[in-house]
Design goal:
293 residues, two-stranded antiparallel ribbon
Length: 293
């Protein structure tokens, strides 16, 4: 029993730790294109599995981007600059990426007009529908006739305190971050160990009752040994469950999750906050807050 529990706990920890070492987690924007609250730009989510060459896939995606912009803005694109943006990844985090903005050229009543765009994030992975390797890209595109500020858009793999709060239930923080395999292992491991605690404690209590019901010295000795073994097994389960639960909390905060797009409020946002000291009608000092939407 003791050896079995040690092996079970070791397997759970190894699996939970190794789950993150699988292929990079798919970014959240692949299945859920971000919706821009900014009136000056919108997001376009594209993919291509037409070629094994990354350069060819990017060229195909740019062609799709042009077609998408033509449909949305009802314009005709005459020319597009090649997208040279590059991104680097380190431990699942965005290291750095180009801040360059590129133009789609079009003509309106004979005059050239650009529509700006930027590649926000990209990802290479297997397409679940076709089973082929696929290149995914997310673009932010300026709306026709507007001036867009893309500097408020960033990509992050951190989820902060919310992931920690959700991990009060083991695995839920990992589910929230997109690490479904690891979340399942966390939840399943804690459930198995909780079941082990209940089983070993119940069996230990049975042997305690048997000891009280017999006067046979040999039987008492046997029941006592088994009682002690199940007590040890229970303590191992308790320790393993506590260790896995703490690891679940630490992992929820420290380990990167699926990349997601975050849009910060720009300088020209209409929302304003103001704090000012004042005095009440009774002469008491107060701090007033003003929020403008």
């Amino acid at each position: 029993m003791k050896k079995y529990l040690y092996c079970l706990f070791a397997l759970l920890v190894i699996c939970a730790g190794g789950a993150q070492a699988q292929n990079r987690i798919r970014p959240r924007w692949i299945n859920n294109t971000p919706i821009s609250s900014n009136e000056n730009y919108y997001f376009v989510n594209l993919h291509s599995d037409a070629s094994s060459s990354l350069a060819a896939c990017r060229a195909a995606v740019l062609k799709e981007l042009t077609a998408s912009v033509e449909r949305v803005d009802r314009v005709t694109i005459k020319e597009s600059y090649k997208d040279h943006s590059t991104m680097t990844y380190s431990g699942g985090n965005i290291g750095q990426y180009s801040q360059d903005t590129y133009d789609l050229k079009l003509e309106v009543e004979g005059s050239p007009r650009p529509i700006k765009y930027r590649r926000i994030d990209d990802y290479q992975g297997r397409n679940k529908e076709s089973g082929r390797d696929c290149y995914y890209a997310l673009y932010a595109v300026e709306k026709f006739g507007c001036t867009a500020d893309f500097s408020t858009i960033r990509v992050t793999s951190k989820y902060g305190a919310k992931a920690l709060a959700l991990s009060i239930i083991p695995g839920c923080g990992q589910f929230y971050k997109g690490a479904y395999l690891k979340g399942g292992l966390m939840l399943g491991g804690c459930a198995v160990l909780a079941g082990g605690i209940i089983f070993t404690e119940h069996t230990r209590a049975d042997y305690v009752a048997k000891i009280a019901q017999t006067h046979n010295t040999q039987a008492i000795r046997t029941y006592t040994n088994k009682r002690n073994h199940f007590a040890t097994a229970r303590n191992i389960c308790i320790g393993a469950a506590a260790a896995l639960y703490v690891y679940n909390l630490i992992d929820a905060v420290a380990t990167p999750g699926a990349r997601r797009v975050v849009v910060k409020k720009g300088k020209n946002s209409q929302r304003r906050y103001a704090f000012a000291p004042t005095v009440s009608e009774y002469g008491r000092p107060m701090l007033t807050t003003s929020i403008t939407f």
